[in-house]
Each structure stands twice: as C-alpha cells, then as structure tokens.
Amino acid sequence: NCHIIIPPNVEIIDNIAFSGYKNISHIEIPSSLQLIKNNSFLNCISLRMMTVPPTLDICKKAYLKIQFPNN
Known about the structure:
single chain, three-stranded parallel β-sheet, two-stranded parallel sheet, 5 strands, 6% helix, 23% strand
C-alpha cells in the first residue's frame, strides 16, 4: 500500500487526479488545498485514511466521491 503526501503548495486536486489508483491507502492533504474536484479518488479501493486540514470546507470534502469496498 502507498502513503501519498500532497505538496504544501497545491491548491486544487483536479478531476480524476488519483482515480483508479488501487494501492493508495493514506493521503495527507495540506492546509493550502482549497478544492477537491469530482471523482478525484474514485475507485481508490485501498484508501482507508485521509488526513484533511480543518480549513477545508465540508462542502468541498463532499466532492471526494470515494467508493469504499463493502468489507
């Protein structure tokens, strides 16, 4: 499994940026991030943890569209 740390200067994670990356288990998002676009983490089936700064608006978190497995 893979642990991704988004660099501190990133402000936007674009559409389908990590979509289909099946080995990502943990992502750390910097406080500089302002927007996560649709389907950025779609089908990241190993993703179990996302560290999100409190400055990221809850509405923006809704755009994650993460599909977790049923188990």
